[in-house]
């Protein structure tokens, strides 16, 4: 499936204000500082990376997908900023510099299917942080994965087609599976629609597991919050936000 199609619907269904909330969360830990060297893991179409660059930071966007990076490049050109873009697997990043901040948002870490893979990500991140560097990320809570997502259905349509999203409990503990179906107008015959499907698997872990893996990787001052850092974690918090520092 064309990532242009995915990006179109992703931007349509995503609450755009959430990007402002992610940026405000970053600003909590970078207030008063300019020209920081920031890496955004799983940067996708580059929306957050571009906004950080607009604030005067030097931003490197890393993603596993060439296609997503192509869209990030187009966004960079349209917005008139400069990003460094690199293909990379966040589980096995080579040292790319001593970054001041590394971010990984939009529950991208939940695509790690095993606890060992989460540990690999944390080790990759700390290799790329300078002394005292900050790592900021979010993940789905266990409440969101186990109680909210299973049975979830969403339908969106516009002039260009339709998007269906269904979620089911996964086979692994604390996991969920998302079945995404796109119906897009055919370029060859405007009276027909082409069907595309994607399957996404996500998994989360108890708070204590994330904290243990972060500390084992060498992070200190590990803080977990909810609501983009605005509240303490509750039993029904949908998403957890982590901030930690390289010693």
From TrEMBL:
Residues annotated as domain Methyltransferase: 38-133
GO molecular function: methyltransferase activity
Source organism, top-level taxon: Bacteria
Protein name, entry field: S-adenosyl-l-methionine-dependent methyltransferase
Lineage: Bacteria, Bacillati, Bacillota, Bacilli, Lactobacillales
InterPro entries assigned: Methyltransf_25, SAM-dependent_MTases_sf
Any single GO BP term: methylation
Pfam families given in the database record: Methyltransf_25
Keywords assigned: Methyltransferase, Transferase
Gene3D superfamilies in the cross-refs: S-adenosyl-L-methionine-dependent methyltransferases, Vaccinia Virus protein VP39
Record bears the keyword Transferase: yes
